[in-house]
Specification:
2 copies of one chain form a homodimer.
Chain A: E1 16-17, E2 31-39, H1 46-65, H2 70-83, E3 103-108, E4 115-121, H3 127-139, E5 152-154, H4 155-164, H5 178-197, E6 221-224, E7 232-240, H6 242-247, H7 250-257, H8 263-276, E8 289-297, E9 312-319, E10 323-330, E11 337-342, E12 354-361
Parallel strand pairs in A: 4-5
Antiparallel strand pairs in A: 1-2, 2-10, 3-4, 6-7, 7-8, 8-9, 9-12, 10-11
Chain lengths: 367, 367
């Protein structure tokens, strides 16, 4: 959260629910995994980061218990994370060079493989609701005169579309918090000092930069249900340096690797070979990002007794940043677990990684 | 070009030069392949489409002969295509719902694997120059205070960045042509008629839509030089329905498939299995797009005599749209060849495909 950013794109804090029942009434099972960013989480604010994750998990589980679909649960959790002033999304996002707040958000449905995203959107409290609305509008089929519905909108056009589709506007100044404003001033000062030290031969231009980075398809999130080709349903969300996530297509790469037998080993290799040592980032001295991953096998294991045959969910996170805050919860849990994962002492952020995770047996969804 | 579009993003018309010499002075070899869109090209304007491709090839070859790098040749060709009022890029782009011109452009360097892109940019005559500038700025390394340079900018921020980096602004009204204005009026009328026919229960909102579609990483263009993992250097550019190109990541998929032995068969299968029949577009009745592909083997074939050992370039195009206009030229050619490929009579656009191509032996670059 504290690191200097060169734009104010708000990284999305995505959550995934494993909820593959086709029938709403049956879909009472489910598991959610969220993150509150890969970056640096100070000990002094640890409680707030964890609380945001806990609340997000609870929102998603409430949706699932009420028969909501996975994307509805995801959106509910993301609203909670965007509303927290401690996450770099929605309320309290980092400001851009011009002192404005511009946000990104994306959401993907593993069943229909539909995708909705907004980039560099201003004046909307919950960008994820716009991304989700784009996704649901696209699922309705073509627009008038055979036009194909958009899946990705940016800037002023994204804001206008949102408002015309009933998403309420929010004055931009209400989205800045004392934390985000003081971080902006601190970072701006750092930049000015660095530029004074510079020889003056290469003056950096202080222009506005509207970036729509995390919202890039395949980079910020991915979800793909099991099918003929895929043994596992997978869901991935990333966080970190937008340029690094884009150029390695980290979310999609991690999702693809999750079809291997050993999830932990596969994610470790992906983070090492497709991220830290990626040929697409050969000249970067530090590669900064993190990922949360869920997977669930479509086949119940035949050796188990019928009572134990709920699906097995494997959940993992890995990051090269100093820390990553995560939360997770199944529908059968009474409350969410949260955790701030940190790189081991003595390791170098951007060159080393941490990886952790667990498994959860869901109760059968047709009990 | 005539088809109704639901936004005015200007698809980029990318060209690729095979030019893998590390030393500028040696880089006198090369081959360029361009397209002027996959869509519908009327017979009445065939000459103009072909002329734009011819000029673009010539510009690129001139750059290569003068010792320019591949990306410089690509940018020069693209400026020519953007300046043509007959292509849906730059000057004469389709207008968006609000009657404005917003353009996309992206460029990728197969050697450094750097990438630059702009989305929904207004008031800039040649968006490719901004994409190229983003790419070249990123290659210089970090900005002041350790900030990572952006690779993708959108909307007003992209325009402001461009102007502050010396790219001249251009009044938006100068970018519309009589063709683009009459197409806008015609399409708007079609839409209004379609909405009147509609029951009125689901009125389509007439909001602005700023989409940054073709500029999505992996969707509009891809370039990757041969390396330990890849036998072939590949370069791909796509055109067509932005949403279809994004959700199938068509450029990257086609590039990856080009490592197979039989390029023609590989592209045919990719267009069939990863595009027309893609699970990501399962509910689309028509999948509309086209692709141009270049590949070049890094190993000279040992059975040939030294005089014949210039690299062999394979070039292909394939499309599901009614037509696609292409042009190609090697540095040793006196002029470019151009061609409008059309689906065979009786086939259905969006469900069938055309595929064509050729090979070219370049003269050795160290003669």
């Amino acid at each position: 959260m504290e690191r200097l950013q060169n734009s104010a794109e708000a990284q999305q804090y995505t959550l995934y629910a494993d909820n593959s029942c086709p029938n709403k009434q049956e879909s009472t099972g489910g598991f959610v995994l969220v993150h509150a960013g890969a970056g640096y989480h100070s000990e002094s604010k640890a409680k707030e980061y964890k609380l945001a994750c806990k609340r997000a998990c609870q929102q998603a589980v409430d949706q699932l218990k009420a028969g909501g679909l996975a994307v509805e649960a995801v959106a509910a959790a993301l609203v909670e994370l965007e509303d927290s002033p401690f996450t770099n999304a929605g309320m309290g996002s980092n400001l851009n060079l011009s002192g404005e707040i511009e946000c990104d958000a994306s959401i993907m449905d593993g069943k229909s493989l539909h995708y909705g995203a907004v980039g560099a959107i201003s004046g909307i409290k919950n960008p994820v609701l716009v991304a989700n609305r784009l996704l649901s509008e696209a699922q309705k089929g073509k627009l008038s005169a055979g036009r194909i519905p958009p899946c990705f909108l940016v800037g002023r056009g994204a804001r206008d579309w949102a408002i015309s589709h009933g998403v309420p506007p929010c004055p931009s100044e209400k989205m800045a918090t004392k934390f985000s404003l003081s971080a902006y001033k601190r970072n701006k000062r750092k930049m000015e000092v660095a530029e004074k030290i510079d020889t003056g031969l290469h003056r950096t231009k202080k222009s506005r930069q509207s970036s729509g980075n995390a919202a890039h398809y395949g980079c910020g999130c991915w979800a793909e249900n099991a099918c003929n080709m895929n043994t596992y349903s997978t869901a991935v969300s990333t966080s970190g340096c937008g340029e690094h996530l884009i150029r390695t297509m980290l979310a999609r790469e991690c999702s693809a690797t999750m079809q291997s037998e050993d999830a932990h080993q596969a994610l470790l290799e992906a983070m090492q070979n497709k991220f830290i040592s990626s040929p697409f980032l050969a000249n970067e001295d530090r590669v900064l990002g993190g990922v949360i991953v869920l997977r669930c096998c479509r086949f119940p294991e035949p050796q188990l007794s019928p009572n134990d045959r709920g699906p097995l969910v494997e959940f993992l996170w890995s990051h090269t940043t100093e820390s990553m805050c995560v939360g997770y919860m199944s529908v059968q849990d009474s409350k969410a677990k949260t955790h701030i994962s940190r790189l081991p002492p003595g390791t170098v952020p951007g060159r080393s990684l941490a990886i952790e995770g667990g498994v959860c047996r869901l109760k059968s969804m047709v009990d």
